[in-house]
């Protein structure tokens, strides 16, 4: 084993140094259903909640669409009113022009009258003949009538102007009311959009949770069936009914909730004391902060535990039966171990906390930074075969059964597919 871990490359050190600063949330306090019935109930409730969320989304979208239609309507109403106001302005302008014209006419008439009545030349002109005098009287009468007529027209126009101005005031008031309404609608739309994005966010969280519960349910159903348990029975009690039997499983999950693939399985080249070395790496490494919860990758039974080995440190080995096939998973460089040999575990069992930090796990000389080394072999170690060499001989690339992102890439759940 020394060979496997001897000086896990500088590349890993760099990767770990770069990645260990990332804050990774700890979901270890998640509440778990106790029986298959509980989990079914939990799933039902979550499905109802999810359905309600979808309805809420549709309702909010409907409200947004309605408010947007209202904005369109008020905007059009405002445009119409502004057109009306412009028409009124044109009318007022025209009326003012008409008034000016009439005033000018009156001035012309009066000036004509004044010139005719008081002007010396006119006086001289009209004093000559009786005919002229009659004409003068006649013209005076006409002038008076005309100016009276124009006066009444002006008054009428002025009345129209007042009417138009009043109407304009009324319309302007309506415009400002529409502007207020539009602003209110826009505020409503933006608040509805916030609601919508929050609801959608909630749905995304629920989708992840639903996926997890459905996967758990599938696994639990298989176990309950296999072990002949009643669905209201406690899961752990059901597992304990058959201490000699491994709980079956249907899939492998990653051993940590979040982290980053820091080293692949297979041959790798690294430099140790300036000498180039090429060695086989028998596992898949996940860079995680020190003390991260490490879970079993599938339901199973703890078959071996090693403490403080000078290469690989604290280690746990778990035998699994997944889709009818036998496997044994190994977890290395642990800071602490939370299980003991013989324990039946599920995917939710925290088997230990991650280590691998040389200044903390001083006994482990095969890790340069916080990470979990996951190794998987076929068969049940310590049951089908006893020797460690048997385990290493059966080791294969964990990626064949455990989905993980590419080297250097991170993940945020145990089940997201890459
Ligand atoms: Zn490793």
Describe the structure.
- With 418 residues, the chain is α+β, with helices and mostly antiparallel strands.
- It folds into 2 domains: 2-28 and 247-411, Glucose Permease (Domain IIA); 60-199, Helix Hairpins (Orthogonal Bundle).
- Helix content is 52%, strand content 19%.
- The chain is rod-shaped, with a radius of gyration of 46 Å.
- The model is unreliable at 1-31 and 122-126 (pLDDT under 50).
- Zinc ion (ZN) binds next to loops.
What is the strand and helix layout of this fold?
Blueprint: H1 2-5, H2 10-19, H3 36-118, H4 120-127, H5 130-227, H6 235-240, E1 248-249, E2 259-263, E3 266-272, E4 275-281, E5 284-287, E6 293-295, E7 300-309, E8 313-322, E9 325-337, E10 344-345, E11 350-354, E12 371-378, H7 388-394, E13 395-396, E14 410-411
Parallel strand pairs: 1-8
Antiparallel strand pairs: 2-5, 2-14, 3-4, 5-12, 6-11, 7-8, 7-10, 8-9, 9-11, 9-12, 12-13
Helix pairs in contact: 3-4, 3-5
Bound molecules: zinc ion.
Taking pLDDT < 50 over at least 5 consecutive residues as the criterion, the unreliable ranges are 1-31, 122-126
Based on Cα principal axes, name the global outline.
Answer: rod-shaped
Integer tally of domains: 2
What is the distance, rounded to the nearest whole angstrom, between the alpha carbons of the first and last residues? 30 Å
The major β-sheet equals:
12 strands, mixed
The average pLDDT score comes to: 84
Number-wise, the strands total 14
User: Per DSSP, what share of the residues sits in E-state strands of 2 or more residues?
Assistant: 15-25%
Q: Estimate percent helicity.
A: 40-55%
The CATH homologous superfamily name of the largest domain equals Glucose Permease (Domain IIA)
The CATH architecture of the largest domain can be named as: Distorted Sandwich
**Annotation field: number of helices:** 7
The radius of gyration over CA amounts to 46 Å
* CATH topology tier name of the largest domain: Glucose Permease (Domain IIA)
What structural category do the secondary elements indicate?
A: alpha+beta
């Amino acid at each position: 084993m020394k060979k496997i871990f001897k000086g896990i490359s500088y590349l890993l050190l760099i990767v770990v140094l770069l990645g260990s600063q990332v804050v990774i949330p700890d979901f270890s306090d998640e509440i778990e259903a106790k029986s298959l019935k509980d989990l079914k109930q939990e799933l039902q409730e979550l499905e109802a909640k999810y359905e309600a969320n979808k309805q809420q989304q549709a309702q909010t979208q409907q409200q947004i669409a309605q408010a947007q239609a209202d904005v369109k309507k008020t905007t059009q109403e405002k445009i119409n009113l502004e057109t009306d106001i412009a028409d009124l302005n044109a009318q007022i302008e025209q009326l003012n022009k008409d008034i000016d014209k009439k005033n000018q006419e009156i001035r012309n008439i009066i000036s004509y009258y004044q010139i005719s009545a008081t002007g010396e030349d006119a006086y001289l002109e009209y004093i000559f003949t009786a005919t002229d005098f009659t004409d003068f009287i006649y013209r005076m009468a006409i002038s008076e009538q005309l100016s009276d007529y124009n006066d009444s027209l002006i008054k009428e126009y002025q009345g129209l102007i007042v009417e138009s101005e009043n109407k304009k005031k009324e319309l302007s008031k309506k415009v400002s009311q529409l502007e207020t309404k539009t602003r209110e609608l826009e505020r409503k739309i933006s608040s509805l959009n916030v609601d919508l994005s929050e609801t959608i966010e909630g749905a995304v969280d629920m989708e992840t949770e639903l996926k997890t519960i459905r996967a758990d349910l599938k696994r639990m159903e298989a176990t309950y069936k296999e072990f002949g348990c009643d669905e209201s029975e406690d899961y752990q009690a059901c597992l304990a009914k058959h201490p000699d039997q491994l709980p079956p499983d249907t899939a492998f999950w990653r051993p940590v909730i979040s982290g980053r693939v820091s080293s692949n399985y297979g041959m790798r080249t690294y430099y140790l004391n300036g000498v180039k070395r090429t060695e086989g790496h028998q596992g898949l490494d996940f860079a995680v902060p020190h003390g991260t919860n490490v879970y079993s990758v599938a339901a199973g039974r703890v078959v071996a535990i090693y403490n403080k080995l000078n290469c690989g440190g604290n280690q746990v080995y778990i035998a699994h039966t997944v889709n009818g096939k036998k496997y044994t998973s190994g977890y290395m460089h642990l800071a602490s171990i939370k299980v003991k040999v013989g324990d039946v575990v599920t995917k939710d069992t925290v088997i230990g906390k991650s280590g691998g930090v040389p200044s903390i796990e001083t006994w482990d000389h095969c890790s340069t930074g916080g990470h979990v080394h996951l190794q998987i072999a076929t068969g049940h170690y310590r049951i089908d075969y006893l020797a460690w060499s048997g385990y290493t001989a059966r080791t294969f690339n964990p990626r064949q059964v455990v989905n993980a992102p590419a080297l250097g890439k991170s993940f945020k759940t145990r089940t997201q597919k890459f």
